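Usage

Read records sequentially. Each one opens with the input sequence:
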Amino acid sequence: MNNPISGALYLLKGFQLIRQPGIRQFVVIPLLINTMIFATVSFFLFGWFGGFIDQLMLSLPEWLQWLEWLMWPLIAAAMLLLIYFTFTIVANFISAPFNGILSESVEAHVTGAQRTDDSPWHTAITGIIPALKEEVRKLVYSVTRSLPFLILFLIPVLNIVASPLWLLFGAWMLAIQYSDYPMANHKIEFKDQRELLKQKRFLAFGFGGAVFVGLMIPVINFFVLPCAVAGATLMYLEQYKTLSNKNV
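and closes with the structure output:
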């Protein structure tokens, strides 16, 4: 099943899993927190946006006032992208302590095994610092490997291939981001996680690509994060766990 379509379907399977009893509780709290943060950031940014446009128009000479109709959509689009990337990064950090527990709960539901901890909320709270450290490591890994693509965008002719390469890179990074939770629960090191994903790279690209598309859709993107954790957990159990055991 090493193909992109099979990978993408795991995101849909993740949506089915997060609705199950015993799993929903680990989705609701980070979802509510992320919603509040998104609403607050949007409120202040768009409030600032209106004043910024007014000030900008006042600073322009009268003969350039016609540019207002062009400035609004361009700056609004830039603001939406800023909110999207800010929300994605912040949401991952906020959800990080819960995502490991969510992944473990999904695995217990799928396999029928007992949870390893009697108090998952206590585990989530005590695991905040390690979870945040892991998110920082993934963020640094992502940023450092993004730089060559940013350079490509600045080079004429080569920037034509930059966009599709950037999409593939984004899909790969999202596959790494969410596969980390089930793999980390099984004590698989970050470097080994990447090597494991490469053994079925088309499957990983399909999953990451589906997550990428989902994150670009307003409102839907709120639910993509827990769906991605659940889907990645199922994908690990069905596709990668046997491979990881062979490598031990």
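Summary fields computed downstream for this record:
- The chain has a mean pLDDT of 78.
- Residues 183 and 241 are 9 Å apart (CA to CA).
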